[in-house]
């Protein structure tokens, strides 16, 4: 590099530092700024991008993606992990397996590194992120080592969980270097295992898990965004579930649409290319409501949307999601990350 | 009489009338009961309506305050209120209308975003109150507050008018209205 160039870059850096100083350089000040921005008058982002294929996505190992798809995941939001390191995976698996063994035989001492009937594997999910700045996603698997499986080499999977962050800039910029931001955590397996393993993470990395509930409002956004995705072939029908708030028993209404019809409806309400706006989401849902009202004289708008399933993914208000389409994995995760970050903040 | 006007009737002596508009009868009923249990020097009248316009063949007293109840769990209740607003005379919005959003406590049940109702209330320059009407203690507090507002709107509190109250209830961080 010639001296002229380096001089320019240092002077530029100095001005940006100065700016940081005035705007609020410490993470705490940045945090405060971001909270202020959120509580200002109309904070909701009125438009979002339609999920697209990203460059990074091509790095993903197809075997690992196949493992993430077609499974029901329970979603949690997670505060940043303190002093987490990607180079310590071996150590973490040793400690976590010892922890699980200790919890299982309460009262009896266990030694770290002893051979237990379970095996814990930590591994990174290369490419499951939105930008280069997002930290790498990682996967935790708990395998049982029974007698028969030992011969085959692979154990039976007892529990799986993964941590990821897709387009999490708003959180990343406000957290200091000691923390790793992976706000979205997805688990598949017995709930008792989730809370056990969650407990270990909470103690080890000083973080906090909380179940991510998806409101009816957000479900309608998902319905619109996932309908908007271009598909080569549709794997499942587009289906909605509404719950009617009536006592003593609740009544559920299911509404299935041919995915091509849903797409045609979306195309007729959609105006801004590549983006989804709040008005379009409202209009899309209103069309479905008025169609239903014409045939059955029921105002679906007075009921609560509890589940949406499309060829891209399906989501339930309890915080359970299933991703079906490999192409839009990142897009689905980006919205889930946004919701998780919103919940943390 | 398709449009409600605040001043087209003479007031009755020491009587204050509120109109609660909303799609959920049970909630409105409960709120009305809580309001009537409040100790109050004025004679309270609570009218309930699912929607506007009100039928014209009934003789009713002058309405001093309209409360639009929006259930955040139901898009329908929001649409209904939006339609009702066109049947209200603009002079009502000089402090004699307020919006009450219920159900914000159960985030996962919400089909209407809070910002949508904030925007609505801002468009009509009227105060927006949040209260979970399902919870009894919250409802009682809200009833107390509404009764107090009603007394002011009916002109039963010396020294303060509905317009006064409106300016006091304005959100401090809301941008100044450009059109006014």
Automatic annotation (TrEMBL), chain A:
PANTHER family: CENTROMERE PROTEIN L. This is Centromere protein L. Its main location: nucleus. It holds the Pfam family CENP-L. It comes from the Eukaryota. Keywords: Centromere, Chromosome, Nucleus. Belongs to the CENP-L/IML3 family. InterPro entries: CENP-L. Coiled coil: none annotated. It is found in: Chromosome, Centromere; Nucleus. It comes from Mesocricetus auratus.
From TrEMBL, chain B:
Its main location: nucleus. The keyword Calcium does not apply. It is found in: Chromosome, Centromere; Nucleus. It comes from the Eukaryota. Gene3D superfamilies: P-loop containing nucleotide triphosphate hydrolases. Keywords: Centromere, Chromosome, Nucleus. The keyword Nucleus applies. It holds the Pfam family CENP-M. This is Centromere protein M. It comes from Mesocricetus auratus (Golden hamster).
